[in-house]
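Page 47, continued from p. 46.
Same chain as before, 324 aa.
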Amino acid sequence: MENKKTRKLNDAVREMAQIKMTTDEKKRMLENILNPSPLLMKQPIKSPYKISYFISSFYQKRSLYYLSIAGLFIIIGSGSVIASQKSLPGDLLYPLKVNVVEPIHSALIFSPEQKAEYESSLAARRLTEAESLADQSKLDLPKEQKINSLLESHTQALYKAIDESRKKDPAEANGDDTIVTNFEATMNAHAQVLDILNKQRGKNKKENQTISENARDNAHFLRASQEKEVGATPEQYTKKKEDVQASIDSANTDLNNTRSDESSIGKTVIDNTGKIIEEAKKSLKEADEDNRKGNSQNAHSKLLDSESSAKEAKIFLKAGLKFK
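Result:
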């Protein structure tokens, strides 16, 4: 049997386990963690006594660290992290997603190739968030600026990861080419969807810097920074050409399988998808011409153009037809 002291201790533990924060308390704690008061962020005055200053600074930082971890455990337990994944710029949980959850995830990825793919996926996520806001006519200037800033960060992180990958193993550059063309295709496809939505919703393009322009600029920057100075070998060219032709055929199949859409956006998306596929075919033909002339570098570049356009067509068709 439990003695009196053990019984009291067990009762206290059970009472503590039943303590829960209210919804308002969780929101206030989250706001304080993500948007701390300037008074809390104020730096201590540096003491002339370096040892005492070091000790004071150490304990202050350690306390803030444990406080943050404790707060995060409460947030995680409440399901806010999961809920934040569906949040959009302007929502309460959006800072948690982009300032805490995503950076922690990225920091735990140690492979340069996987980090590059993750940062590319985050850039794509920013554009789909912009599309959702534009569809709801909620894409105002502050939200555009926030998304543009995040797009720049993701692109720079992607560039750094690819650079590390190529230094680590130059022989695996083809895998990096795929990441770059995927990023280029994704940025261009979603930029075009966003342009269509903004036009349909009557948004004045001159009012502010558009996210679609920024996405295209970032795609061009990354592609230009990764262009090779030498072309592919005949064997590599043949294999790449087969892969590109398969991508074009797949995009054509998707377009042919698309049911007739009588909505204004649907018609525009279907028509533009056909034009992007034609661009892919044109680039592939030009690649063959350069290859016959012995200009392997231009031939390889045109192959990447064709591959990027074919992938763009597939992404654009799928993303664009979500909106009516």
